[in-house]
UniProtKB/TrEMBL annotation, chain A:
<dbReference type="GO" id="GO:0000136">
    <property type="term" value="C:mannan polymerase complex"/>
</dbReference>
<feature type="region of interest" description="Disordered">
    <location>
        <begin position="51"/>
        <end position="75"/>
    </location>
</feature>
<dbReference type="InterPro" id="IPR029044">
    <property type="entry name" value="Nucleotide-diphossugar_trans"/>
</dbReference>
<dbReference type="GO" id="GO:0000009">
    <property type="term" value="F:alpha-1,6-mannosyltransferase activity"/>
</dbReference>
<dbReference type="GO" id="GO:0000032">
    <property type="term" value="P:cell wall mannoprotein biosynthetic process"/>
</dbReference>
<keyword id="KW-0333">Golgi apparatus</keyword>
<dbReference type="InterPro" id="IPR052086">
    <property type="entry name" value="Mannan_Polymerase_Subunit"/>
</dbReference>
<comment type="similarity">
    <text>Belongs to the ANP1/MMN9/VAN1 family.</text>
</comment>
<protein>
    <recommendedName>
        <fullName>Mannan polymerase complexes MNN9 subunit</fullName>
    </recommendedName>
</protein>
UniProtKB/TrEMBL annotation, chain B:
<dbReference type="GO" id="GO:0006487">
    <property type="term" value="P:protein N-linked glycosylation"/>
</dbReference>
<feature type="region of interest" description="Disordered">
    <location>
        <begin position="1"/>
        <end position="22"/>
    </location>
</feature>
<feature type="region of interest" description="Disordered">
    <location>
        <begin position="428"/>
        <end position="493"/>
    </location>
</feature>
<keyword id="KW-0472">Membrane</keyword>
<keyword id="KW-0735">Signal-anchor</keyword>
<feature type="compositionally biased region" description="Low complexity">
    <location>
        <begin position="456"/>
        <end position="468"/>
    </location>
</feature>
<feature type="compositionally biased region" description="Basic and acidic residues">
    <location>
        <begin position="474"/>
        <end position="493"/>
    </location>
</feature>
<dbReference type="GO" id="GO:0000136">
    <property type="term" value="C:mannan polymerase complex"/>
</dbReference>
<protein>
    <submittedName>
        <fullName>Glycosyltransferase</fullName>
    </submittedName>
</protein>
Length: 372, 493
């Protein structure tokens, strides 16, 4: 269209455009600031380490961009002052929650977020295998972590999170339920599991942890107050009972059944069996070929029983386990070799006992395993 | 789109337009013209006022919003002005998530080229006296300092170990020399309620060994578990009382690329004890005798090496030393000593530690060696690569040395007394000689006079000569006694 012989109009900015622009600017600013720095309260900032070379159980201030980096400061830690008491909440004790993970279950993460213990006192540690499956799980885990740590409300955010990748080849490619539980695969699988647990534990424990809470990646339901509840017992090693919910076809309703059989009290039969074994053989629980007649905590559960009833244990499972950090610091670890014919978590219980720490179990305090 | 065209009229009111009709704005002129066409672009005064107030409102709202945002998030105004881009430059940003791939920290033969980090672990107890020596070693390490993280455990110390440690370490970290400061420094305090006395005798007495070793093991485990990080490739254990060691020891041991490796540890001795001696007897190879012995002991017993109570007949690394042997020669070991251990961090990550209980009848570093072997790690020692522990005299040595000191003092005392006596003797004899001389000259004088008097009195003259000879003889005997005493002293020293 031919422009009429009119004036060349220098367009005046409309006030409406200005307003829209200002609003946009604010939104851009908001997202720039909001997304790049998840802000933390002063108390959290105060506990942060000044350098990235620091215990991973605390967050750190990201190193300054420009200039020469300063050498790390001389850090002093007085382990005499790290308390481990029946009331960790009152004493603001640090929890290290450790999970060896092969698959990521969103329910697991949701359950973590529901924990009522202050999240600013909980450090999460994960170790994942370097397989295709492990990569997938890592990606999913990182997604959820970002969502919680960057965009979530501050009360949901954990103190710090450590993700480790294993440095050894996983012994089995398949994580299928049936394949995993085959007896001859058990020793190799559990030795690898033990290495995984130890790698996770000894590279994250640090100088300020009071309690180590082991929670398997497939435990998807625990009481929100589980940390306080287990700590209340003031025992070196406390194991709740691990059950599984399932669809009972006979009763036509949801039901639950015992799942973890590694929590047990020793029997003369098992000791007799052990005596006849070679030095590299291991005793396993839950296999018909090897009748140990141990008393399993899984079957000690009573619906009308007291929730905080304790029983002494000689072997523990790793599904959920609250351990005083001192027990691990003294050297109690998960043997990746037959230790008194026991391996991994069961060997751990034995080693703790050798160091003078008696594990206990809570038959009526239940956590639930994922149903595959 | 221009306002004229939007008006829908093709008739351009060339002479009536108040605005830009002639190509430039005439905003200040005012034209009263009731029949004038009003283009849409010049909005009514009412409307323009309304929009302006809207803009103001929006601006106020924006500022308020920002302020609320500020106070709500607790963020500093600075980060707003820098648009959050400079946030981490200001050190405001917290990083809560860490990701580590452990396959990147396996440890290789040439760690210093691959920037592999070492954790240097030093357990300390009442070690103030040894610290200056230790820090001179620390400063002299040739392995890149920024790749070494140092962790100390100070337990049950009654001297100023902690204060001196902090002071010296801060001095190093603040060093002007770029190559001097180390990586992460952790100084950990933990008291285990030490019941065992720390003096040499009670420390090395047989009865105290099992309990002492278990306690040491706990201390080592506490130190390691508090200081090991996912970025460590190596862990080096070093005792504070090493007197002489090559500055290149980290590289020298690392070059062998073994899971666990120890050098030979000797100590210098005073001349009267032979000059040198094997020190660390905890590095050994297992023997049939020892295995048989282990079977006879109860579950909690701990075999300790180097005591007559347990004759194990094991080949010891220490005794195989040849001062002129190849320092790179390796020897497989089952038990190791803790004076200087270089191990790959994965050994500890996989769970090998210093058993604070009887593990296969061993505890602490010997149990560590055993456990590492149990997990199929390589454990070797270098028989001809030697470092030197300080010499702390044992109670017997001290007694012996005190005895020697006393003898020496007694000797000196005796010598002094003798010398004084001799001096006195000499002085008195010297006086006597003078007297004799005087007497002699007097007598000679008298004799001469007498001679003059009578030449026949030869008998008296003879008597005087005999007396002189007797005096000289006595003088000589005194000299001989002193010389004899000197000789005796020489023999004794």
């Amino acid at each position: 269209m031919a422009r009429p012989m009119g004036p060349v109009r220098l367009k005046k900015t409309s006030p409406a455009t200005l307003a829209v622009g200002a609003a946009l600017c604010i939104f851009i600013l908001y997202f720039l600031i909001g997304s790049s720095s998840p802000d933390f309260s002063a108390s959290r900032k105060a506990t942060a380490a000044a350098h990235h070379l620091s215990p991973p159980t605390s967050p750190f201030r990201r190193s300054t961009g420009g200039g020469k980096p300063k050498p790390p400061p001389v850090a002093r830690y007085n382990l005499n002052n790290v308390t481990i008491t029946p009331d960790p909440l009152e004493n603001r004790e640090n929890i290290l929650l450790l999970t060896p993970m092969a698959r990521f279950y969103p329910e697991y993460w949701d359950n973590l977020l529901r924990l009522s213990y202050p999240h600013e006192l909980i450090t999460l540690g994960f170790i994942l295998p370097k397989t295709k499956e492990g990569n997938t799980a890592t990606t999913e885990l990182q997604k959820r972590i970002t969502k919680t740590q960057k965009y979530g409300p501050e009360k949901d955010r954990f103190k710090s999170i450590i993700i480790l990748r294993e440095d050894f080849e996983p012994p089995l490619s398949s994580q299928d339920e049936s394949e995993r539980h085959k007896m001859h695969n058990q020793k190799i699988r559990r030795a690898a599991m033990a290495k995984s647990r130890n790698s996770l534990l000894f590279s994250t424990l640090g100088p300020s942890t009071s309690w180590v809470f082991w929670l398997d990646a497939d435990v998807v339901e625990t009481p929100p107050s589980i940390i306080q509840d287990l700590a209340r017992h003031d025992k070196p090693v406390v194991a709740p009972n691990c059950f599984q919910r399932y669809w009972n076809a006979e009763k036509k309703e949801m039901d639950e059944r015992p799942y973890d059989f590694n929590n047990w009290q020793d029997s003369p039969n098992a000791q007799e069996l052990a005596k006849q074994m070679g030095p590299d053989d291991i005793l396993l629980e839950g296999y018909a070929e090897m009748a140990t007649f141990r008393s399993l905590m899984a079957y000690m559960h009573r619906d009308d029983g007291h929730r905080h009833e304790e029983v002494p244990l000689d072997g523990v499972g790793g599904a959920a386990l609250l351990v005083k950090a001192d027990v691990h610091r003294d050297g109690a670890m998960f043997p990746a070799f037959p230790f008194y014919h026991l391996i991994e978590t069961e060997g751990f219980a034995k080693m703790a006992k050798r160091l003078g720490w008696q594990p206990v179990g809570l038959p009526n305090y239940k956590v639930y395993h994922y149903n595959e | 789109m221009l306002p004229f065209t939007s008006s829908g009229s093709k008739v351009t009111p060339r002479h009536h337009v108040s605005g830009y009709s002639n190509g430039y704005p005439r905003g200040s002129t005012f034209d009263i013209s009731p029949h004038r066409f009003q283009p849409r672009g010049t909005a009514s005064a009412y409307r323009s006022r309304r929009t302006q107030s809207f803009v103001r409102l929006a601006a106020v709202a924006a500022v308020l919003f920002l302020l609320i945002l500020l106070s709500w998030s607790g963020s500093s105004a600075l980060s707003i002005f820098s648009l959050g881009l400079l946030a981490h430059d200001q050190g405001f940003q917290l990083e809560t998530t860490r990701y580590y791939d452990l396959s990147n920290v396996q440890g290789t033969a040439r760690g210093w080229e691959r920037e592999e980090r070492i954790l240097l672990c030093v357990p300390l107890r009442d070690a103030e006296a040894h610290l200056p020596m230790f820090f001179s070693h620390l400063r002299n390490f040739t392995y890149p300092h920024h790749l070494i993280d140092v962790a100390f455990l100070v337990s049950d110390s009654k001297d100023r170990t902690l204060e001196v440690l902090v002071e010296k370490m801060e001095e190093i970290q603040a060093s002007e020399d770029d190559k001097m400061p180390f990586g992460e420094i952790s100084i950990i305090e933990k008291d285990f309620g030490q019941v065992v006395n720390q003096d040499v005798e009670s420390r090395h007495g047989f009865a105290a060994q099992a309990g002492r070793r278990k306690l040491m093991a706990r201390a080592r485990n506490w130190l390691l578990s508090a200081a090991l990080r996912p970025y460590h490739s190596w862990v080096y254990w070093r005792d504070v009382d090493v007197e002489t060691a090559p500055f290149t020891i980290l590289e020298d041991l690392m070059r062998h690329n073994k899971d666990v490796i120890v050098p030979n540890v000797w100590r210098p001795l005073p001349e009267w004890l032979g000059g040198e001696q094997p020190y660390d007897l905890n590095s050994w190879q297992e023997s049939e005798t020892a295995l048989a012995l282990a079977d006879t002991l109860d579950e909690d017993a701990v075999i300790v090496e180097g005591y007559a109570e347990y004759a194990t007949w094991r080949p010891h690394l220490a005794y195989l030393r040849d001062p002129y042997g190849d320092p790179d020669m390796e020897m497989e070991l089952d038990g190791v000593g803790g004076v200087s251990i270089l191990a790959k961090a994965k050994v500890f990550r996989y769970g090998v530690h210093f058993p604070a209980f009887s593990f296969e009848k061993h505890a602490e570093t010997e149990g560590f060696g055993k456990m590492a072997r149990r997990m199929e790690f390589s454990v070797v020692g270098l028989p001809h690569y030697t470092i030197w522990h300080t010499y702390e005299p044992s109670v017997d040595d001290i007694k012996h040395m005190e005895q020697m000191e006393r003898e020496k003092l007694a000797q000196e005392q005796a010598e002094k007394e003798k010398a004084e006596k001799a001096m006195k003797l000499k002085e008195s004899f010297g006086d006597a000689t003078g007297q004799w001389e005087k007497d002699k000259s007097d007598m000679q004088h008298i004799a001469l006079e007498e001679k003059k008097e009578t030449a026949a009195e030869a008998g008296a003259k003879n008597k005087a000569a005999a007396g002189e000879a007797e005096g000289e003889a006595e003088d000589k005997t005194g000299d001989k006694v002193i010389a004899g005493k000197d000789g005796e002293k020489d023999r004794k020293t």
